[in-house]
Amino acid sequence: MTKLSRRTVLAVSLAGASVALFAAMPASGARSPQPGVLPRPHAAPSASVAPLKVPPSVELVVILALQNPSGPDDPEIAKWPSAAKPPLSLFKTRKVLQHIATATLPQGQAYPITVPNGPTLSLTFREIAHEDKKADRYSFGAVLTTPNKTTPMGLLMKSDDRVFIAGPDYQNGTLFFGIHVL
User: Are the C-beta atoms of 82 and 162 separated by less than 8 Å?
Assistant: First the structure.
């Protein structure tokens, strides 16, 4: 198997994700009826959709993915069905370096996940994003910080969504940050 570049892995990981990678912003001049909440489009809300829990709780995992067969996958990986899909399935060995079972994210407060001698991913709950004819989603800001670069991104996720964010090379492999909205 050819070595995947970080850019290739990130592109593949984002293509298979069930999240939109942009921040939902109100139209210029639009005002929110409540602070931190986007105005709802003119479509009528669906009565069958349960309201989202605020503040949201998430499960977080940091995975080291390796190309060389250095042993079996960590059993913790089985709890993340999306790890069986590219880009994580393209690696021969995947090890959980850090697992945070439940983290509550108050609005506007960054929650950092730091890898020893490595990068930091800061996750911040921004607001509930109201989408036209779709269920409401959580809007998160994520910032991946390495010694040489800071990469901001936006995530729109609904309850029970799971996504991986590809990180930099680390200890002869590639880091992935997993986020599961509980």
Answer: yes
Backbone angles phi, psi at 141, to 5 degrees: -110, 135
Give the whole-angstrom CA distance, residue 57 versus residue 95: 24
Structure tokens at 6: 């970080």
Residue 70: name the closest of 98, 90, 91 by CA.
Answer: 91
15 exposed, middle or buried (CB, 10 Å; 0-12, 13-18, 19+)? exposed
Per-residue pLDDT of the chain (182 residues; tens, 9 = 90+): 444 444 434 433 433 333 333 333 333 344 444 444 444 444 444 455 567 889 999 999 999 999 987 678 888 888 888 888 998 989 989 999 999 999 999 999 999 999 988 899 999 999 999 876 677 899 999 999 998 999 999 999 999 999 999 999 999 999 999 999 99
Helices (H), 36-164: none
pTM higher than the cut 0.85: no
Distance CA 164, CA 149 (A): 19
User: Are 58 and 123 in contact, with CB atoms under 8 Å apart?
Assistant: yes
Which residue bears the tokens 């492999």? Answer: 173
